Amino acid sequence: MLPSTALTPLQLVQSSSLPALVQAEIEQLILGGELAIGEHINESELALRFGTSRGPVREALRALEECRLVRSEKNRGVFVREVSVAEADEIYDVREVLDELIGRRVAERATPGQVLELKALAAEMDEATAGSDVKRYHALNLRFHDRVVAFAGNDRLAGTYRLLTKELLLFRLRGLQDGGGFAVSNTEHKAVVKAIAAGDAERAGRLLRRHAADSRARMHKAAAIAAAR
Amino acid sequence: MLPSTALTPLQLVQSSSLPALVQAEIEQLILGGELAIGEHINESELALRFGTSRGPVREALRALEECRLVRSEKNRGVFVREVSVAEADEIYDVREVLDELIGRRVAERATPGQVLELKALAAEMDEATAGSDVKRYHALNLRFHDRVVAFAGNDRLAGTYRLLTKELLLFRLRGLQDGGGFAVSNTEHKAVVKAIAAGDAERAGRLLRRHAADSRARMHKAAAIAAAR
DNA sequence: CAATTGCAGATTGTCGACAATATGCAATTG
DNA sequence: CAATTGCATATTGTCGACAATCTGCAATTG
Question: Chain A: residue nearest B54 by CA?
Fold first, then answer.
């Protein structure tokens, strides 16, 4: 693991506020699928679960609402958001241009060590593909893109990208994504890493953008199948 | 005014939660400059001002933290964020590619009526320029870009763009922006509108992106002057 | 006299309680 | 018997209070 996640207990207590911790916890509950899409979120229940009062839970939910992971109806409570195909499509529109920028920047700035890390992740994804381990592949895929955007060296770009990615993850939880074909996806990853290693910004940007476009196409395909059913 | 902002009292009460109203109110306080950059925000004071308890205020502040308009320090409270030149630079990096996408989309989708509205805004900005009314120019400029992104017909794109714009607005409040030269800016606006009216997506995208780049350049110039002082 | 320590006031973090509202079920009525 | 009405319950929205923490100042000490 990376040292960035290793915090001493002291640092943890000093930095993290209770609402922030609760927020992260609820986010995991949603992204991990424990809280189902569209499901009503019971404040008291969560408060009880986390051993806090409802105050911190409400603050966390307000933050998550701003992240667009939940929606709130007055006097009815908050619900896990359901992202429609149309919305996912809009997000992909934005994500494509961000991915191009990310590809360019990371090709310009990535260190040899960072390139190595990306190569290792791509290799792991090959393993997961060989073993048909879809769950592991998805986790690695997320990590791959997260590392890439981190290496692009622009925090706001990374923040913007991650926000959209989380929303897409929410969409994916509806099950309309990837009717297989993730061997193709990793071929694309490796091509991207190659362009990055070569420092070819133009090419890395183009490839990463196309990768996003392909991902969008796969999403549409799966959605069409689901709609026909 | 537009009908979109006209809500019946019934709708207002049903839709808007107290924390959401307080959030909008605080946002205006910040963006309007009433709460100074870097200033500590007193929860009790705001609660008193709005006639609520501290709960809704805290929820609003948590949402504003997610918007990056405020930052929060544990046990010390929340402060109006101060955006550095480096951060503004990062934001511009993202904004440029978004502006290109916006230009393309709006050129593809804008109705004649929408084009007319943009032309009218550009004309008003010419008036403000002639009258050296900087404040009015800035307000119109904001509205112009807000309308453009609205006409692009992609809500997530609009949301992403507005988030970044607000953060830049926060930076601008530090006074390091525009050492004049906003006559140039409006010439660019008019060229953009022309491309949109012609339905030239390629050109509109390129021009809007360059407009953002020029804005960034003006920011750097002002920042350099301020740094030398 | 500089530096540290201790204290008073102010502010945040969290909680439990109460009022307002929504929800589901049973009773009623045509 | 279907539809509506009214009620009991659960949940949200908001509040005031209290404990924990920070801040600035004064007193103390070497």
Answer: A55
Q: Containing domain of residue B25, as a range?
A: 14-80
How far is it, in rounded angstroms, from Cα A139 to Cα B19? 36
Query: What element of type H or E holds A40?
Result: strand A40-41
Q: Residues in chain B with pLDDT < 50?
A: 1-5
DSSP characters over B1-26: --GGG---HHHHHHH--HHHHHHHHH
Integer distance in angstroms from CA B77 to C1' D27? 30
Beta-sheet pairing, B70-73 with A77-80? unpaired
Burial B151-187 (b: 16+ CB within 10 A, else e): bbebebbbbbbebbbbbbbbbbbbebbbeeebeebbe
Residue with tokens 């900005």: B125
Nearest CB to A156: which of B60, B74, B87?
B87
Measured between beta carbons, the chain B residues lying within 8 angstroms of A105 are: 93
Instruction: Looking at the structure, tell me whether residues B128 and B222 fall in a common domain.
Output: yes
* Residue A182 confidence class, pLDDT cut points 50, 70, 90: confident
CA of A35 to C1' of D19 (A): 34
Q: In this predicted model, what pLDDT tens digit does every residue of A29-60 receive, in sequence order?
A: 999 999 999 999 999 999 999 999 999 999 99
Residue A75 backbone zone (phi > 0: left; psi -120 to 50: alpha; other: beta): left
Q: Would you say residue A2 lies in a domain?
A: no
Strand partners, A72: A78
Q: What is the mean pLDDT of chain A?
A: 91
Nearest nucleotide over every DNA/RNA strand to the B77 CA, judged by C1': C12
**Residue in A15, A90, A100 nearest the CB of B74:** A15
| Chain B environment of A87 (Cβ under 8 Å) | 155-156
Measured to protein CB atoms, the chain C nucleotides within 7 Å are 11-17, 21-23
Amino acid at B77: G
**B2 lies in a domain?**
no
Q: What's A152's domain CATH number?
A: 1.20.120.530
Distance CA(A143)–CA(A141), nearest Å, equals 5
Whether A94 sits inside 8 A of B63 (CB atoms) is no
Three-class DSSP labels, A11-32: HHHHHCCHHHHHHHHHHHHHHC
Give the CATH number, domain containing residue A44.
1.10.10.10
Kindly list the distances between the CA atom of residue B21 and the CA atoms of A121, B60, B138, in Å, as whole numbers in the listed order. 45, 8, 25
User: Count of A–B CB contacts within 8 Å?
Assistant: 85
The candidate with the shortest Cα–Cα distance to B63, out of B19, B16, B125, is: B19
